[in-house]
């Protein structure tokens, strides 16, 4: 079910995480939360307090199988990007993309498309032909980036899971 890694001109490889990636994934997770706190479902403090063994177990769990997968952009040192996918409860043909992030210096490099395409390839291999993601209303940069990747605003708005005063919009596209 794993597709071949994609290598970028800037020498980052997009691939599914492996159990050995736990420490680098933890470092990226802390960066993600510090840089874009509204986009993710935990705080930096919560993530920093989690023991390494918890990260290791999570990464091992998402490194194989059809239920949930995480993909990273690896230039050979610190990870510079991430995107996850998981089966949608109640919609067996749908993969929900989650925790999409690019280190600021890699934004605009085409790496977002490569991360999303790896999730899409995995989704198709698992028999799920559609992708969905949610974006905080007002995050126009992310909204436009996902539009460029073929996602369409469905018109569905849902409450932000952590901040009730915010709304998220749903976007979908074929995998």
UniProtKB/TrEMBL annotation:
GO CC entries: ribosome
Pfam families in the record: Acetyltransf_1
Lineage: superkingdom: Bacteria
Boundaries of every N-acetyltransferase domain copy: 12-175
MF GO annotations: acyltransferase activity, transferring groups other than amino-acyl groups
Residues forming coiled coils: none
Listed InterPro entries: Acyl_CoA_acyltransferase (IPR016181), Bact_Acetyltransf (IPR050832), GNAT_dom (IPR000182)
SUPFAM superfamilies given in the database record: Acyl-CoA N-acyltransferases (Nat) (SSF55729)
Keywords: Acyltransferase, Ribonucleoprotein, Ribosomal protein, Transferase
Protein name as annotated: Ribosomal protein S18 acetylase RimI
Source organism of the structure: Micromonospora rhizosphaerae
């Amino acid at each position: 079910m794993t597709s071949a890694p994609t290598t970028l001109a800037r020498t980052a490889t997009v691939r599914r995480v492996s159990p050995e990636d736990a420490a680098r994934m933890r470092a990226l997770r802390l960066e993600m939360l510090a840089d874009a706190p509204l986009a993710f479902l935990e705080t930096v403090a919560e993530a920093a307090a989690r023991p390494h063994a918890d990260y290791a177990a999570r990464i091992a769990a998402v490194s194989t199988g059809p239920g949930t997968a995480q993909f990273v952009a690896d230039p050979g040192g610190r990870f510079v990007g991430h995107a996850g996918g998981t089966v949608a409860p109640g919609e067996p043909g749908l993969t929900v993309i989650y925790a999409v992030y690019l280190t600021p210096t890699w934004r605009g490099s085409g790496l977002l498309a490569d991360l999303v395409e790896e999730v899409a390839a995995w989704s198709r291999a698992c028999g799920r032909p559609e992708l969905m993601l949610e974006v905080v209303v007002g995050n126009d940069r992310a909204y436009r980036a996902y539009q460029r990747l073929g996602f369409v605003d469905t018109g569905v708005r849902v409450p932000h899971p952590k901040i009730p005063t915010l709304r998220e919009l749903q976007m979908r596209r074929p995998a």
